[in-house]
Design goal:
This protein is mostly beta strands. Helices cover 10% and strands 33% of the residues. The protein is globular.
């Protein structure tokens, strides 16, 4: 699910989490807590920003990142899977694996005790991923924003 209205209808948490169109229209989760703010790209499960309240942002993202569908974001905290760096036997495959350039699915969102906000994203194998890596998988990223 990548339609912003549908994502917000199902997963937004008033005052804590909402989905916005990021650069190039990619869906991004904006998370705000009394502890920190974060920005998570649904594509790639990529943490693009983390900034403790009253402090400078802790993550760097390149100004030349295209934020285009199917292109990995440069910087932040990427998910590099199922390999890191160049593929060990096929240099034509994507650097740092392929999941960072695929659209993930939102699986859940919650406010936890002490106003921590948790976002769960997932990615399953499909026809496109099996063309690159012929294995079944079910990945889940749980991002918890807090102190």
């Amino acid at each position: 699910m990548t339609d912003l209205q549908a994502l917000n209808d199902q997963y937004a948490i008033h005052g804590y989490l909402n989905f916005v169109a990021g650069p190039a229209g990619l869906p991004m989760a904006e998370i705000h807590t009394r502890h920190a703010d974060a920005l998570v790209a649904v594509q790639g499960g990529h943490i693009a920003r983390f900034q403790p309240q009253g402090a400078a942002a802790l993550l760097w993202v390149s100004r030349i990142s295209s934020y285009a569908a199917g292109k990995a974001i440069r910087g932040g905290i990427p998910v590099c899977w199922p390999w890191f760096a160049q593929h060990p036997s096929d240099p034509t495959l994507p650097f740092h694996g392929f999941v960072r350039a695929h659209m993930w699915h939102v699986r859940g969102a919650a406010v936890l005790p002490d106003e921590l906000v948790q976002l769960r994203l997932g990615l399953n194998d499909n026809e496109d991923t099996r063309a690159i890596w012929p294995h079944a998988f079910d990945l889940e990223l749980v991002a918890t924003v807090g102190p």
